[in-house]
Write a structure and sequence with these properties.
Elements: H1 9-14, H2 20-48, H3 61-64, H4 69-90, H5 95-98, H6 103-124, H7 131-155, H8 168-183, H9 190-197, H10 202-208, H11 210-235, H12 238-243, H13 254-311, H14 313-316
C-alpha cells in the first residue's frame, strides 16, 4: 500500500496498532515507578536528609533503616527489579521466555527496571554505600547509566516490528517511498523541506570518527522537533501558531500534519542510515562493556544478600 493511500474505515477498525497495548503498559510501568519513588522521597525526606548520627533518633528510623519495615521491603523490591533486569538476557536461552513478546518489548521493561532499581536500592540503603553493598550499588549505577546509552543506540538502528534489523535494501526502499510521497505534496517548497531533510555526508561521518559521529547524531535528533515546529509555523496562520505553541504541538491542519509526519520519518531515517555503521559498531562495543559490569553487579548483589541473611542482619537491624 502506498503511503498516500488511506485504508478503508473497516480496515482501520479491524487492524489496530499492534504496539498500542505495549506502549500503554510501558507508560503504566514508568508512571508506577515514578509515583513510588516520589512517594518514598516525600515520606522519608526528613529522615534521609538527617546526618547519619542523628537518624536513630528520628521517628521514622525503625521503618526506613535498611532492615526496617519499609527499608527491608525496598530491598526486596530492588532484588525483584534486579531479577527482571536479567530476564532480558535469559530470554535468549530459555525458549518459553523467548516466545513472550518481542526483543523490543523486553528491552523497554529492561530499561525501566534498570533505571528504577538503583534509586530503590539507594532508598533501601538509606543512601549509605559502604562495603560490598556500596560497591554493588556503584556498579549497578554504572550499569543503569550505560543501559540508557545502550537503549538510545538500539533505537537508532532501524528495525522491523519484530525487532529484526532491516537490511540496507529495505532501508533504501523505505527511504525512496518516503521521498516519492514528499515529492508530490504541495504544502512546502523544496527549499523549505531541505533545511529539515539535509544530512551530513558519508565522508564527513567517516572523517570525524564514531564518538563524535554519535554526538552529532544526538544533536540532530534534538534539533529535529524545532525544525518541524518551524515547518508548522510556515504553514499556519497567526492563530494557528499560538494554538500550536509556535509549532511545537500539532496544528489543526490535517494536510500539514500529514506532510510533517512524512518529513519527520524521512529525516530520521536518512540520518540513521548515514550514521548506521558507526551506531552498529559502538552498539556492539557497548555490549562488551555493559555485560561484564552487569555480571559483576549480580555476583556482588548475591554475596550481599547471602551475607545479610547468613549473619542475621535483618533480624539485628543493620545500622
Amino acid at each position: 500500500m502506498s503511503l498516500l493511500q488511506s485504508p478503508a474505515p473497516s480496515m482501520l477498525a479491524a487492524r489496530k496498532d499492534p504496539e498500542s497495548g505495549h506502549r500503554i503498559r510501558v507508560w503504566i510501568a514508568w508512571l508506577a515507578s515514578g509515583l513510588l519513588i516520589a512517594g518514598i522521597a516525600v515520606y522519608g525526606a526528613g529522615y534521609y536528609l538527617l546526618p547519619l548520627d542523628e537518624r536513630p533518633y528520628s521517628d521514622k528510623y525503625q521503618a526506613l533503616r535498611p532492615s526496617g519495615a519499609v527499608g527491608l521491603k525496598l530491598g526486596i523490591l530492588g532484588t525483584v527489579l534486579f531479577c527482571i533486569i536479567f530476564l532480558y538476557a535469559l530470554r535468549k536461552v530459555i525458549p518459553w521466555l523467548g516466545r513472550i513478546g518481542t526483543a523490543r518489548h523486553w528491552m523497554d521493561f529492561h530499561v525501566i527496571a534498570g533505571v528504577s532499581a538503583p534509586v530503590i536500592i539507594a532508598f533501601h540503603a538509606s543512601f549509605k554505600f559502604r562495603g560490598i553493598a556500596g560497591v554493588a550499588f556503584w556498579i549497578m549505577l554504572a550499569v543503569a547509566l550505560s543501559g540508557i546509552i545502550g537503549r538510545y543506540l538500539y533505537s537508532q538502528i532501524p528495525r522491523s516490528m519484530t525487532a529484526a534489523e532491516l537490511s540496507q535494501n529495505e532501508l533504501q526502499a523505505h527511504e525512496r517511498e518516503l521521498t516519492e510521497a514528499i515529492a508530490i505534496q504541495s504544502v512546502y517548497s523544496l527549499e523549505q523541506l531541505q533545511r529539515v531533510l539535509n544530512v551530513p555526508s558519508a565522508a564527513h561521518i567517516r572523517r570525524i570518527g564514531p564518538l563524535l559521529a554519535l554526538g552529532e547524531m544526538a544533536a540532530l535528533e534534538m534539533k529535529l522537533p524545532f525544525q518541524v515546529a518551524t515547518l508548522r509555523r510556515q504553514a499556519c496562520t497567526a492563530a494557528g501558531r499560538i494554538r500550536s505553541l509556535g509549532g511545537l504541538l500539532s496544528s489543526a491542519n490535517p494536510e500539514v500534519e500529514r506532510v510533517v509526519k512524512l518529513v519527520r520519518q524521512k529525516a530520521s531515517l536518512s540520518r540513521r542510515m548515514v550514521f548506521l555503521s558507526h551506531t552498529q559498531r559502538v552498539f556492539h562495543l557497548w555490549h562488551v562493556i555493559h555485560r561484564p559490569f552487569s555480571y559483576a553487579f549480580a555476583v556482588l548483589a548475591v554475596v550481599h544478600i547471602v551475607v545479610v541473611m547468613g549473619l542475621g542482619f535483618m533480624g539485628l537491624g543493620a545500622r
